[in-house]
C-alpha cells in the first residue's frame, strides 16, 4: 500500500482548499497556544506510513473527534508541498474541535499552512533561530538527555518531548531507550511543558502518569487502531 498522500482531484475539493487558504488558526497568539498545550493530555503523532493504508486526514479527524487537543503531522517521506496540502485540509477540522496542529521539522510549512507550531529535532533549525522567524508559533524540541533538555530550555523552547522512553520502530534516533528510571531523574530539570514518546503503549500510561508525564505522545497505538476515535477516548481516560 502506497504511503503517498491522497488528495481528491475535483472542483469541490479546490473550493474547500480556497476557503482553507484564507482560514487562520483558532489560536491567535503564542500565549493561547501554550495554554492549550498545557491543558492537553494525549498527543497523537500521525504519519501516513503507520496509518494501516488509510488517509492520514481520516486519522487526524478521528483523533480530533476523540478529544485530542494537540496533533502532530509527521511525514518524513513527503515533500513540503504534500505536507502543506494535508495541513490545509486539517485546519478547518482543528478549528472546529479546538486542536493545535504541530508540523514536524518544517517552519515554513507551519507558517504558510496556518499551523500552530512546529516540532524540531536535534538536526533541524535551532530553536532560537526558529523563534526569530516565527515568534507566534509554539516550538517544540526533541530531547534525549539532560544536556539537550537544558540547551533547548536555554534557547527558549515552548515545550519539550523526551524520549524514546521504550524501544520504538517509528523513529530512528540511534540511542537506546531511556526507560522510566532515567525519565524520573530528568523530569525535575524540566521547566517547560513536556511530552514523552517512544514505544509507548496503553499499558505504559499509568506508570508514566504517576511519574508526572501529563502529555503522552503516541503513534501506532492510535494510527493503527481499528477505531482511532474510540482509541483516543480510551487512552485519554488513562492519563492524569
Plain-language structure description:
By secondary structure, the chain is α/β, with parallel strands linked by helices. The protein has a single domain, classed as TIM Barrel, CATH 3.20.20.70. It is 42% helix and 14% strand. It has 11 helices and 8 strands. The protein has helices at residues 11-21, 30-39, 56-65, 80-97, 107-112, 127-133, 146-155, 179-186, 205-211, 220-223, 228-238; strands at 42-46, 70-73, 100-104, 117-120, 138-143, 159-162, 194-196, 216-218. Strands 7-6-5-4-3-2-1-8 form an 8-stranded parallel beta sheet. Helix 6 links the parallel strand 4 and strand 5 (138-143). Helix 1 packs across helix 4 (80-97) and helix 3 (56-65) crosses helix 11. The longest helix has 18 residues, at 80-97. It is globular. The relative contact order is 0.15.
> Tell me, what's the shape?
globular
CATH architectural type: Alpha-Beta Barrel
Radius of gyration: 17 Å
- Helix content, binned percent: 40-55%
Query: Approximately what portion of the residues adopt beta-strand conformation?
Result: 5-15%
What is the H level of CATH, i.e. the homologous superfamily? Answer: Aldolase class I
Oligomer: single chain
Highlighted features:
alpha/beta; eight-stranded parallel β-sheet
Task: Give a short overview.
The protein is of the alpha/beta class and 240 residues long. The chain is built from 11 helices and 8 strands.
Draw up the topology in text:
Elements: H1 11-21, H2 30-39, E1 42-46, H3 56-65, E2 70-73, H4 80-97, E3 100-104, H5 107-112, E4 117-120, H6 127-133, E5 138-143, H7 146-155, E6 159-162, H8 179-186, E7 194-196, H9 205-211, E8 216-218, H10 220-223, H11 228-238
Parallel strand pairs: 1-2, 1-8, 2-3, 3-4, 4-5, 5-6, 6-7
Helix pairs in contact: 1-4, 3-4, 3-11
Amino acid at each position: 500500500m502506497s504511503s503517498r498522500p491522497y488528495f481528491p482531484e475535483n472542483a469541490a475539493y479546490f473550493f474547500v482548499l480556497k476557503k482553507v487558504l484564507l482560514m487562520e488558526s483558532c489560536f491567535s497568539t503564542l500565549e493561547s497556544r501554550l495554554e492549550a498545550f498545557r491543558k492537553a493530555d494525549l498527543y497523537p503523532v500521525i504519519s501516513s506510513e503507520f496509518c494501516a493504508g488509510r488517509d492520514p486526514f481520516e486519522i487526524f479527524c478521528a483523533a480530533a473527534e476523540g478529544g485530542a487537543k494537540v496533533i502532530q503531522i509527521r511525514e518524513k517521506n513527503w515533500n513540503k508541498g504534500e505536507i502543506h496540502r494535508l495541513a490545509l485540509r486539517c485546519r478547518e477540522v482543528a478549528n472546529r474541535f479546538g486542536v493545535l496542529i504541530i508540523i514536524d521539522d518544517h517552519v515554513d510549512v507551519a507558517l504558510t499552512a496556518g499551523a500552530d507550531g512546529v516540532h524540531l529535532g536535534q538536526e533541524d533549525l535551532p530553536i532560537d533561530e526558529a523563534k526569530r522567524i516565527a515568534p507566534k508559533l509554539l516550538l517544540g524540541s526533541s530531547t534525549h538527555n539532560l544536556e539537550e533538555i537544558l540547551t533547548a530550555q536555554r534557547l527558549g523552547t515552548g515545550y519539550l518531548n523526551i524520549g524514546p522512553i521504550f524501544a520504538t520502530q517509528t523513529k530512528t534516533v540511534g540511542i537506546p531507550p531511556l526507560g522510566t528510571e532515567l525519565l524520573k531523574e530528568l523530569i525535575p530539570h524540566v521547566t517547560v511543558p513536556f511530552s514523552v514518546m517512544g514505544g509507548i503503549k496503553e499499558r505504559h500510561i499509568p506508570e508514566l502518569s504517576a511519574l508526572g508525564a501529563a502529555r503522552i505522545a503516541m503513534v501506532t497505538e492510535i494510527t493503527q487502531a481499528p477505531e482511532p476515535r474510540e482509541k483516543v477516548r480510551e487512552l485519554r481516560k488513562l492519563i492524569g
